[in-house]
Amino acid sequence: MISSVPSASTRIVHGAHSASAPPLPAHGTSNPLRTPPVPITGAHAVVRSLEALDVEVVFGIPGGAILPVYDPMLDSPRIRHVLVRHEQGAGHAATGYAQATGKVGVCLATSGPGATNLVTPLADAQMDSVPIVAITGQVGRGLIGTDAFQEADICGITMPITKHNFLVTDPDDIPRVLAEAFHIAATGRPGAVLVDIPKDVLQARTTFSWPPAKRLPGYRPVTTPHSKQIRAAAELITAAQAPVLYVGGGVIKADASAELLELAELTGIPVVTTLMARGAFPDSHRQHYGMPGMHGTVAAVAALQKGDLLLALGARFDDRVTGDAASFAPGARVIHADIDPAEIGKNRFADVPIVGDCKETITALTERISALRTHTPAPDLTDWYTYLDRMRNTFPLSYNRPADGALAPERVIEALGTAAGPDAIYVSGVGQHQMWAAHYITYDKPRTWLNSGGLGTMGYAIPAALGAKLGAPEREVWAIDGDGCFQMTNQELATAAIEGIPLKVAVINNGNLGMVKQLQEVHYQGRYSNIDLATHSRRIPDFVLLAEALGCVALRCERDEDVDAVIAEARAIDDRPVVIDFVVSTNALVWPMIAAGASNDQITAAHGIRPLFDDNEPARETATLHDLMDTHH
Questions:
Q1: Angle at which helices 257-267 and 358-372 cross, to 10°
Q2: DSSP label at 21?
């Protein structure tokens, strides 16, 4: 839950209100004209409000309770509705659209099972701070609480997993509530908002005018950082001998990548980017040391463990980064900047807490440090860089080609990133392929890497890639999915084919639930329980036949020498979705790795190879990951 929302409970909107607070800025800026009151239905008010909020695309499935909205939407000249095959697909598509564009994603569902099918994507968006608004139909007001057909208390169900939600019981309130929902979703720390509207409210007569006056007296996110905290942070930064910029997804949400680059180059501080922040700082930059965490690079993990100052920007010190929190960064002081005050101090004490928007905070820090540099020399970070470079050079990311001639999954993803380049958008499912995609593609630009980081939702990639491609039609969009994830939401390929959305899909088909298998190998002595998907042994399903049945061009690649040609063939097709079934080794594991809950000091660079972070004892410099990794143990 986000502490800065109006309340932790569902807001039931009736229509009688006290005097309003000063109007908040409108969400959209391209539709400034005022609309005088006109008589329409509540459903028409929904559509007119979405138009006024600059909504371009809505993902959903019609059903009885939401059907009143679908009739006037048919006549909308501005809104494109995409008919998905499952409501979960609608939610993830809205999320992918929002992540790729920075706009609010919108999805529609009917009451009962339609609404409950949105639970997973709502939780997913909320965990990753993605602005989406879900509009659900509800049974009529007189039937609420009677266990009516297709009734579910979706506000109660989603209360813990949304930033805020509304139950609208007066048609007059629809424009205001939707304006408030978009404002809450997009401002402060972005998140998921649900608006539930009973069917008879949608059918009732009302008047529509725009813009409405928002009434959110308790919702005032702090965006400007306190100058005293900026001064304190700048003083720590200028004195640190081993600082690190610990960059989280909040930097991308704030569109602060350019400001981050300026700060990093001014200070010369090494940078690590979390899974949600890949692309916030260029991978190709000299100061970048990769992704930290459970499957992070050795250099990035070492930077956090051995640094004397962590400047955390839009990051939340989650368990996948810290490991055992008691042993995380033991010698570091912490500057923690975040738009959400609830995150500061939640998982790690902050010596200097800064509440504010990342862009404004980084700009203020840059200005203050520039002023200090006029009379205070910059610290010498030579020894710090020497240590981190030793970690990077001793334990680089690398992989072996399988001795049995099978295709290496890392090779596939590396080739894909090389071919599509830094301007493409890469959308990953969850599992081993997600970690390989995070490591073996170079991300130099923000909003080019989309994934489910917080909730870890299998089935995210295909619908999210669909949404991303609609949001950025000029960009090449690749969904990188595992064979397990792919089987959860591949029905949305039919949506892509029918709607003419030419996304591309690389299925990393290793025949099993790869990350589960890896955990069973590491923690359960190789006792493999229920991980064989039969996509290797019996080709059930045959992904080529399945993709073709869903209206896609389908290709298969099983040999290393064919990888580049198959990718080139897929890239040349731009009028239909393309699916490539990459049949890869069943034995490849993700390295580096830290066991869940273990100290980051226990990072394993490859099977049996544990780096040493003691400054006085050199790391094992006699071998690299390429020499040490055995993919057939």
A1: 20
A2: P
pLDDT of residue 376: 86
Rounded Cα–Cα distance for residues 204 and 171 (Å): 7
Side chain identity at 359, as an amino acid letter? K
Q: Crossing angle for the helix pair 382-394 and 298-306, nearest 10 degrees?
A: 150
DSSP assignment of 329-343 equals STT-EEEEEES-GGG
Out of 150-154, 399-403, 513-517, least confident range: 399-403
pLDDT of residue 615: 56
- Burial pattern 382-398, b for ≥16 Cβ within 10 A else e, equals eebbebbeebbebbebb
- The residues pairing with 480 across neighbouring beta strands, listed in sequence order, are 428, 506
Tell the residue number behind the tokens 């805020």, with chain if given. 164
Integer CA distances (angstroms), 516 to 241, 296, 610, in order: 40, 18, 22
Alpha-carbon span 569 to 561, nearest angstrom: 14
| Maximum C-alpha span of the chain | 78
Distance CA 211, CA 214 (A): 9
Query: What is the rounded CA–CA span in Å between residue 76 and residue 599?
Result: 55
Token pair of 413 as six digits: 């993803």
**In contact, 96 and 465? CB cutoff 8 Å:** yes
pLDDT of residue 443: 98
pLDDT in the model for residue 612 = 81
- What pTM does this model have? 0.92
The Cα 449–Cα 447 span in angstroms is: 6
Q: How many CB atoms lie within 10 A of CB 231?
A: 15
Q: Catalytic residue positions? A: 87, 149-150, 199, 515
Q: What percent helix, strand, coil does the chain show, rounded to 5?
A: 40, 15, 45
Structure tokens at 39: 């008589």
**pLDDT at position 28, please?**
42
